[in-house]
Amino acid sequence: MSGSVAFDTLKFVEKLEAGGFARPQAKAAAEAFAEAMSQELATKADLSAAEGGLRAEIGKVRTDLTAEIGKVRTELKAEIAEVRTELTAEIGKVRTELKAEIAEVRTELKTEIAAVKTELKTEIAAVRTELKTEIAEVKTEIAAVRSDLKTEIASVRSDVELAKRDLKIWFGSTMVVAVGVILAAIRYLPAGHP
Fold first, then answer.
1. Distance from first CA to last CA of the chain, Å, rounded?
2. DSSP code string of 12-76
3. How far apart are CA 49 and CA 61, in angstroms?
């Protein structure tokens, strides 16, 4: 890099004073600006050369990255294939284990169901026997009640027959008394009454 720009510090100080700066401030600002301007500045040729270098570096980085991406892609494909193989084997193993467990549970459940059926059949038979016994007892009680009712009904019929007889006797005796009273009343009636 090369090249520097000519700078008139006196003119710069005068412009700053005209703008309202004090002389010491304007002088300090002009000196600082002149020092900054005295540094080397890049030319168009310098920038063009730097651009070419950067382009070459970018191209190299692009090539390196493309190669690295290809390598990573290949590695990832290999890892994915390996994981796929491992997972397929693991899934097969789990499937086999689950089938065995399901078969075991199925057998256990069948055994339990058979045991429950046997228990229920036994309980049902016991309940059936108890119910038959209770039904026989109820039938016996019903027969006893029937017999008692027949006896009671016969007794009530006998009582009703006695009551009828007593009622007939009472009615007959009442009729006899009434006829006697009527006859006595007729007897004591004066003779001229029809």
1. 184
2. HHHHHHHTT--HHHHHHHHHHHHHHHHS----HHHHHHHHHHHHHHHHHHHHHHHHHHHHHHHHH
3. 18
Cα gap 186→180, rounded to integer Å:
10
103 in Cβ contact with 111 (< 8 Å): no
Token digits for 106? 């199925």
Neighbours of 96 (CB within 10 A): 10
What's the whole-number average pLDDT of the chain? 86
Could you give the CA distance from residue 183 to residue 146 in angstroms, rounded to a whole number?
53
* DSSP state letter for 189: S
Q: Whole-prediction pTM value? A: 0.35
For residues 3 and 45, is the Cβ–Cβ distance under 8 A? no
3-class SS at 192?
coil
- Are the C-beta atoms of 9 and 30 separated by less than 8 Å? yes
Q: What is the pLDDT of residue 96?
A: 92
As separate numbers, helices (DSSP H) first and strands (DSSP E) second, the chain gives: 3, 0
Residues 6+ apart with CB under 8 A from 29: 12, 13, 16, 21
Q: What is the pLDDT of residue 41?
A: 63
All residues at 6 or more sequence positions from 87 whose CB lies less than 8 Å from its CB, including other chains: none
Cβ-contact 179, 187 below 8 angstroms: no
